[in-house]
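Box 3.1 A note on notation
Throughout this textbook, protein chains are presented in two layers. The first layer is the amino acid sequence; the second is a token string describing backbone geometry. Keep the layers aligned when reading.
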Amino acid sequence: MEERTYLKWYNKVGYGSGDIAGNVVYAFLSAFVMIFLTDTIGLNAGIVGSLIAASKLFDGISDIFFGSLIDKTHSKMGKARPWMFYGYFGCALCLVAIFFIPAGASEFAQYAWFFIAYTLLNAGFYTANNIAYSALTALVTKNNHERVQMGSIRFMFAFGTSMLIQTITVGCVAYFGGGAGAWRTVAVIYGVVGLISNSLSVWSVKELPPEELAEGETGEKEEKEPEKPYRLAEAFGLLIHNQYYLMICGAYILMQIYSATLNMGIYFMTYVLKNANLLGVFSWAINIPMIVGLLFTPALVAKWKGMYRLNLYGYVLGTAGRLGVMAAGYMGSVPLMLFFTAVAALGMSPLQGDMNALIATCSEYTYLKTGKRVDGTMYSCTSLGTKIGGGIGTAIAGWLLAYSGYVGGAETQTASCINMLHIMYLWLPMIFNLLITVILTKMDVEKAVQIGLRTCCADRTKI
């Protein structure tokens, strides 16, 4: 029997456009906050890295907390949409605040200002917005093919936005006169763009009624007792007892650390390749193949009858591509680096496109095992991965820069710093890709759900 469809093309595109909002925050901060703080404000890279790492202590708790709140929310807008809509106003304000560090304040006050604004953004407003946005995948449709399409469209917008930000930001800062004032102007513009795109995304979809989400595969409502509310501690227990959640969470964190190390490429381009504008060129080499791969991901998932093999083989290719980038980097060949960067991005694209569908399947696994629907809490791994992974990646970059003797704003750097930049941009991304590939060898959650469904059907037959 053909699976029911729930969404029109404009619902999917409207939903996907919401990642413009997410990436005017994430991509902007990941690529440029460190060089803004070190080269414009004059802060120490190692201290900034430590502050970013310290702020992550709040993130793990806040992710599960907000995910649990979303699961317990009942409003006219649904469970997730209110958190997505209202949460982004705080995101925009905190993004702007980070770049409005008072120039005349003491150094301690500047560090404190950054830490407070960065923590409020990541542990609070971004968490609420991002978990809700991801959870909508499971709340607006029950069709797995539509979920894959939503994920692919979403990440096409994400990578397109990231590519645009990495391409134009340096030029925009120069256009507005350079210095802290120019960075502030750019931050305000990005914040406004994010507010508009987030609002459009919220109102482009509508959540399914709870009773429809509870219907079985045949369309008939299942006879079961009303689900009892669960506490935060119980939600945490449901997550850690789902091995597929832990694997997805680990993979997502590594994916974001990988992205954060690549986003530190502004240093590699400036001091190794001697051209900061190459960051935009490499961004195109990453994001164009990624978008092309995302276009074909739904069809490939359907053809291969699942996500497992496609994701695994894709990351094998992605790891091989990063090995090629590493070799080309030591050869000093920018064209070869660009070619292998594109190969790696193409291989990594399927997992980006079907990640939301993978998490929805993971949530179904928990439901089959426990009878509890925890979609919002389950999607905490996306926010957790983005913030923990991105924060750790940026923090590691700060520590390594400080350890290598990096001097902010200097025309040239020491040999030890140049060697460290090679490690950061060439070695670390390849290692992280290899670790993700190892995790993907075990992440066949679709098979586990199929086994669970067969078991449930067999039990009902006996009854």
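The chain is about 80% helix and 0% strand. Residues 209 and 243 are 29 Å apart (CA to CA).
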